[in-house]
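Hi P.,

Sorry for the delay on this. The queue was packed all week, but I finally got your sequence through. Input first:
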Amino acid sequence: MSQAQPVSYQDHEVTAFNPPRPEQQLASANIIPLRGRRVALPVMLDGPKADALLATLIHSPLGVYIRATTSTKRDEICVTLDIAREDLDFTLHTLISTLPEGTIGMLTTRGVMRAE
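Then the structure:
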């Protein structure tokens, strides 16, 4: 059990309380990172229905993953999804079931993908 010890600071007496600290040695396997690495997954929506496909994607559960670097070229819209690696299975399953007309691009680590 710890005890309070009087400490003097320029004519003021303050009582410091130091609670006991248990010595715990954590193995590195028990340490969980705060945030995992994220990846960028481009999805191309093309054809005359590209706007409707984009609206479908925005209103799907994947709408929260859309990055601001969405680009358009002629009849093609390229949407980049910013996802955690752990969410890749869910993302691909949802993309295939929600947008079978979309084209899934190459998976890259975040920050490597260029906005064109």
